[in-house]
Amino acid sequence: MIRLIFIICAYQASLLLVATTKISNPRVCVIGAGIAGLTSARYLKEAGINFTVLEATRYVGGTWRYDPRVDVDENGLTLFTSMYKHLRTNLPKPAMEMPGYPLPAEMPSYPTWEQFYKYLQSYSKHFDLEKHIKFLHHVISVKRDENVWRVKHKQVVTKEEYEEEYDFVVVGTGHYSKPHMPSIPGEEKFKGTIIHSHNYRLPDPFKNRRILFIGAGPSGMDISLDVAEVATRVVHSHHSIANFKTPFPENYVRKPDVRELNETGVTFVDDTFEEIDDIVYCTGYEYHYPFLDESSGLTFAPHSVVPLYKYLVNVNQPTMVIMGLVVRACLVIAIDAQARYTTALVKGNFSQPSRDEMMAEWQNRYDSLKSQGRPLSHIHLLDKKEDEYYADLTKESGIERVPPVMFKIRTHDAKSKLENLLIYRNYSYEVLDSENFTVSLEKSRNKTEVTAKEATMWS
Hints:
With 459 residues, the chain is an alpha/beta fold. The chain is 27% helix and 23% strand. The strands form 8 sheets. Strands 3-2-1-7-22 form a 5-stranded parallel beta sheet, covered by helices on one side. Strands 9-16-10-11-12 form a 5-stranded parallel beta sheet, covered by helices on one side. The protein has a 3-stranded antiparallel beta sheet with strand order 4-5-6, with no helix packed on it. The radius of gyration is 23 Å and the shape is globular.
């Protein structure tokens, strides 16, 4: 049924839209001034393309800016950031570096949020991007009308609204701002506090308390260990099949999925019970683009946005791209490649495939997932196909190839996490060439070269 729906959508779109051709002097709207917005701005500027970045806050950097507040800011606007005080990057420096602008040599292998945020601010200043950014302008509507995009945005202080026309739209708002909240039987009975990791800032409120964590994604593993340093007991409920070999603290206990909650605690599917004071849902985020309607030609679900060609281009409206949706990848590197691809597309440097061809590429990925019994949410997953993805972007658009060494570093880093979550950030990585890197403990200078063959073995 889903195949038929998207074929029909593609056909209807073909009746309404003109063929993708090189647009003379295109005007581009970039939504958001996080990593996706900044990299897009840099390359669009270098290409001499007319563009505007619309940013709802007063700042660049998106989710990387720490704010001790939760829920809303001083203007009543939702706080988009999910940054917590003790966060360090979960990928090493080479995988966090924006091409053409090196991270400081003195920065540790896994920077703190503050160090990386200052780097993003410096990046913006170095490429003189802020003059292209309209701060405090919140996008409220993007509609396709008569072969242009009508973008409506509101100045969040004065409440004045504006509407402008653009030829291309780059959506760079990310997908880490709307928490996914599970529905657990008995939740309404629980007398303790319940928060989502989106609103976690410091471990201090959990001192000498018994905390239930639900979910074992990167945030779930990281925050639970952060809280374990002050809590009486950390009970971690998840069904991850990852073989973590970490010597967890004595006050940390692994539990299976939750069956139900009551006033004071939780019963798990193995019939065990734990008294609990507080709960932290580390259950991920939903794709949330409330400013896009049916005229975008996209279908939205909490964990998917479809159909996208190359994980990026809106198949039914190919003058729109949705950046940064890829999962299990060097996200900074992937976004930079997507920004370069998008700039080449806007510039008309290559001929984009027909809609039928783009739809076929998406459909093949969907059919592959379906045949494996995997959910549609995996449509954004790169994982072992990450390097292949970079090669595909280069082959089609002619942009510079992301070196294969980046995927190999991420593969080694993933293995290190499984070995020990408490010490993997002690490793330092150095790129030797496009295929090879060295890795060492930061306190040691005895580096061991990692060859292409060895890196493949770790994948």
